Each structure stands twice: as C-alpha cells, then as structure tokens.
Amino acid sequence: MNRNRKFRISDFLQLAKSLKLNQKQVGILFNRFQKAMPTVLDFINNSFLPEDKKLEYIELIQVRASRLFT
Predict the structure, then answer these.
(1) Smallest Cα–Cα separation from 69: which of 43, 34, 38?
(2) What pLDDT, in 10s, does the model give residues 16-59?
C-alpha cells in the first residue's frame, strides 16, 4: 500500500465493514472524531512548536479531517 495515499471516508467505511461494525457504531466513531477536534487543536496551540509550525500542523489536521467529515 502506498504510504502517501490520501485516506477518504470510503476507506474508513470499508474498514468498518470488514470489522463488521454496524451503522450506529460507525456513527459513534465519527462523532468521537469530530468532538475530539477542538481538543486536538488546543493541544497544538498550547504546544511548544514555533507559531509557523503550529499553523502548518493545524492546517494539515483540518484538511485531513475535512476529507473524513465531508
């Protein structure tokens, strides 16, 4: 598998199907991801990273999360 492959929601849905998770379980997992986003962004903002790296990292997280939630 290509390590640079961009994961999409369809990849996670396929994984959930292979794990035999039902729709309710999948919904709960995605809700947890979405609820965790503010905490993740707070951790980044409170980190010791330089400001420019914080902004880059936050943008990266937001772009990747948007692939899953839209």
Answers:
(1) 34
(2) 999 999 999 999 999 999 999 999 999 999 999 999 999 999 99
pTM of the model: 0.72
Contacts for 58 with CB less than 8 Å, ≥ 6 apart: 41, 44, 45
**8 Å CB contact between 61 and 40:** yes
Helix residue ranges, H only, the chain = 9-18, 23-45, 51-69
Q: Which residues, 6+ apart, have CB-to-CB distance to 9 below 8 Å?
A: 67, 68, 69
2 has pLDDT over 60: no
Per-domain boundaries in the chain:
9-69
